[in-house]
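Q: Structure tokens for this one, please.
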Amino acid sequence: MKSLLSLFQRNDQARSDLLGFAYVSAEEPAQFAGVTPGLTVGTFTDKPPWIVVDLSLSSVVVARWPGKLWEVQILRRAGEQPRAGATYVRATAVRIERELPSATLFGTNGHAIEEVLWNASQLTIGQRDVLAERRDRGADEVFSAAWNRWLAQVEPSNPHRGQDHRDTLAVFAGNSRSPVGPAFTVLHSVTTKRAKELEGDAAFVVDEEEQIFQPMWASAFSALLHACMGVGASNDILSNDERSVLLACYSSLKPGRGPQ
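A: Here is the predicted structure, written as tokens:
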């Protein structure tokens, strides 16, 4: 009788009514293929692979783009959970509440950032060369200054405040990782993939055992990085003049609008 009671207690503890977010790459739909609001996803079986549910939009990890962002209700938690204070929960089953625009992950100007990501994913060698050759070095300083203003707002005591952030993709501060959420790291992933598609290993060099973009791709990526900040950062981070500096090189491409 005691063991049966313990089983019911464990099952009660596993139940959950928490709402969270699950981002699923288009390349790896897995259990979420073809789902719609109201459907249940999962096995209810307490073993991997689990469904990772982030408890806030700011903690969602976007390893690959594009993808779909779902708001879900956790129906059953896994027995093995991350350490206390983690920003996500492992679930064995969830109910789909609704689909959110993936642009939500990048803030209020997320759709403009998605357009930059799409254009980066379709970049040609000719466009890369335009970005690399027309890149404004002064935009590096504007980009870094925007980072430091953001850090001053969200976490004044952050040890990275006041540093040179011209190549920074992420700094964890104020429950976020940049002035535009995960956009910079997603852009790096998208541009890396496109560079490999176009030039393979020739698009990269090895620096101290780390693979990085070769100079032309590095300059083009910086211009795209500036564009992400330029279209996505809030007005209290950038002035209109600074925004124009960040967008000048990218605007010369006359890029497409991306999928509608």
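A few notes: Residues 52 and 90 are 5 Å apart (CA to CA). The chain has two domains: 2-100, 105-251.
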